[in-house]
Specification:
By secondary structure, the protein is an alpha+beta fold. It is built from 3 helices and 8 strands, in the order αββαββββαββ. It has a single domain, classed as Jelly Rolls, CATH 2.60.120.
């Protein structure tokens, strides 16, 4: 009976320690990616695409084959180099698609975002869209980001879409 208890304890400790080893070797990598869109609003329509590739970050490139999880923490829009009238606004959509697709899905709508140097807007993104983007980044390491909208005229500015992402990598994975 004692031997059975001893063997059970060893098996339980082994199973627990394997889980601990899997957790201990996980590395968290914060990634901040900025897609900059230079806008000259001389017509009322804006359509701009950027490609976001995780391996473009040197920290990520070294671990790209070991990434086990991608978490999109937030997206913030920031306006720089604004030249235009006070009170001008941007309305539109920020979207995404797989690199191989031209079909853009909408992250979120942008409504009455005031255009001035330093203006910031933290986007509220539905959970389903966050999960879709995380899945695409985990599977393909890249994604297309699309800004479509209208700005009050006339105006020129740079809008930076800043993506704050956390990656988890299995450091011991070969």
């Amino acid at each position: 009976m004692r031997n059975l208890l001893f063997i059970s304890a060893i098996v339980a400790l082994s199973a627990t320690s394997c889980d601990m080893i899997n957790t201990i070797d996980d590395v968290s990598i914060p990634v901040d990616y900025s897609a900059s869109y230079d806008v000259t609003a001389t017509s009322d329509s804006i359509l701009l695409d950027k490609t976001f590739s995780l391996p473009s970050d040197p920290k990520v490139n070294a671990m790209k084959d070991k990434i086990s999880d991608v978490k999109l923490d937030s997206i913030v829009l920031v306006v720089d180099n604004y030249v235009g009238e006070s009170g001008n606004k941007l309305n539109g959509k920020l979207g995404y698609s797989e690199i191989t697709s031209d079909t853009c899905k909408v992250f979120t709508n942008i409504s009455n975002f005031e255009l001035s140097n330093g203006s910031k807007l933290k986007l509220i993104i539905p959970k389903a869209e966050i999960e879709n983007v995380q899945s695409i980044l985990l599977q393909q390491n890249s994604i297309k980001i699309n800004l479509k909208g209208k700005a009050d005229l006339p105006a020129t500015f740079t809008i930076n879409a800043k993506f704050y992402i956390s990656l988890k990598a299995d450091a011991l994975k070969k």
